[in-house]
Amino acid sequence: QKEVEQDPGPLSVPEGAIVSLNCTYSNSAFQYFMWYRQYSRKGPELLMYTYSSGNKEDGRFTAQVDKSSKYISLFIRDSQPSDSATYLCAMSLNNNDMRFGAGTRLTVKP
Amino acid sequence: ETGVTQTPRHLVMGMTNKKSLKCEQHLGHNAMYWYKQSAKKPLELMFVYSLEERVENNSVPSRFSPECPNSSHLFLHLHTLQPEDSALYLCASSQDRQGGPQHFGDGTRLSIL
């Protein structure tokens, strides 16, 4: 079993749609949860950073962590073509050793 | 503009060549990392430096040799690479090893002929 599972997609949605991206994990000791966005030919860019369970909102982006289910989500409201990218989930123990998902490729069509 | 700068952005080399990748962070961080990113695979952590000391080496082949002369600079020296080493090599930094998110550069796209 992989430590972090993420559906690679690709996922294609029309502009304005709500996008849901998800990851599951196996290590219940993870405490920090992150979402990165990676555009083509660029490095991963930190989008959301959360500690333990709960929700965090930043503009059109909402991150959710459900530690009891070992499940994290990223929601994108009013999606835009500029949101087209690969989204990576990541998580870590308290020593910052991060484990990444393989990434979900998202395309938002005008 | 990214706080982590990597050079070169692209590198093509033969299996017998020796080259080096460079990373510089302008964020005042104390920990730096090298990752390998291959298509459709999770990022693979290669090396971790904290306060210029190597703290982790994830069974990386000896043909990859890291160097961290100070907390702002990180190098990855390459020699006698194999075709399967072709990938995107990413550098990252974080405030320290105990927490806080990692910030990435844009990577070096390496192709081995």
Summarize the structure in words:
The complex is a heterodimer of chains A (110) and B (113). Chain A contains no helices and eleven strands. With 110 residues, chain A is an all-beta fold. In chain A, the strands form two sheets. In chain A, strands 2, 4, 5, 9, 10 and 11 form a six-stranded mixed sheet that branches. Chain A is globular. Chain A starts with a strand and ends with a strand. With 113 residues, chain B is mainly beta. Chain B has no helices and eleven strands. Chain B has strands at 4-7, 10-13, 18-25, 31-37, 44-50, 53-57, 64-70, 73-79, 87-94, 103-104, 108-112. In chain B, strands 2, 4, 5, 6, 9, 10 and 11 form a seven-stranded mixed sheet that branches. A four-stranded antiparallel sheet of chain B has the order 1-3-8-7, with no helix packed on it. In chain B, a hairpin with a 6-residue loop joins β4 and β5. Chain B starts with a strand and ends with a strand. The model of chain B has no long low-confidence stretch (mean pLDDT 91). The chains are: A mainly beta (110), B mainly beta (113). The interface between A and B is medium-sized, with 23 and 26 residues.
